[in-house]
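Every protein is a chain of amino acids, and every chain bends into a shape of its own. The protein below has been through that process, and both of its lines are reproduced in full.
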Amino acid sequence: MEENNLAKFVGPPYTSVWRIGNLQDPLAFAPHQYSSWAGRFDDPQRSYRTLYCTEGEATALREVLAPFRPGLIESSLVKFNQVVKIPRKSLREKIIIPARIEVSSGSLVDVADIGLYDELGSEVYGTLEEYGIRSLDLYSIVHNRHLSRIIGRMLYEKGAAGLAYPSIYASGLCFALFEGRARLISVGSAKSLEEAVNARPDLLEILRPSISAQHYNIYQLNHIDLLLYSHLQSQPELLRTLDWRIFEKLLADILETFGYTVDLTRPTKDGGIDIIAFGKPEPWGEHRYLIQAKRWSNRVGVEPVRELMFLHNELKATRSCLATTSTFTKGAWELSEGYRWQLELRDYDGIREWIEKAIRLKRRAKLVESK
């Protein structure tokens, strides 16, 4: 496989990042004798070193604070009726510094690109089978360190200079840079990690248990941001736990990201239209797209399909979509076939595809803004 066919590149060599490192030389690769080789994308064969950084200061701080979450020390968030305590020595021995990535060979590869999984899935089949993983995806790469190191090594051998992957603690990207192909160049002044943490007490929110469906409900998210997208990408099962109104807001935000003008209707549970999206694709002019959201645990049957088609005709829409966090019955799919030019069904897997596409568009827009 040629290097330039690996995956979509995440940005130019001058991508600005933040690095938390040792006082003496924070931007350098760790000396071989001091390397733990325990990083997410460290070389399992220990022939090259890996340097980690993030695209934002907040992401860097959240990543470095993550080891102090409950279960590893005796404390947690006030939200969980406990108190945060961080060993100050750990903070005083590190500094945080802005930098830019300089690539000398190869390119940065986005491990969130779904095309990558098809390319590499067959090559790691044995490892997937060993860990009981049905298919290669972002969740398995980010959460299984053994698998992530194998993937990192494979991409290194295919010419990658480094990898970009979403933080599971923040909305930003993380980067793993491979020795000899990419490095960091300072672009600003460093400050102590202790100073940075003291200046951002809100970042202590990261000191929470590893995210699960029940913990996500505790937070009762009431706004849509890249952090939510990041968690839904790495742990898609959380989609099924969202509050029904947040699910509607998520769909509205996805459509806005796709370029639609969106009208999110008043919150009701009467089975009416939840979102009206307006688009103007050339050369046919403006069209109206109706979306009905079903944040259900049970399968959606034929009746909601009939109801939506009635509203579609009544409101003279161009196209309509029935979106659910569940699945559809066979009868619903068969009925929708008769309206395939007017009606689209989006089940759990279909919404995941939308989320992946929206994330790529948001990251691309963010990179353009940062230039």
Summary: The longest strand covers residues 94-103. Residues 3-210 form one domain.
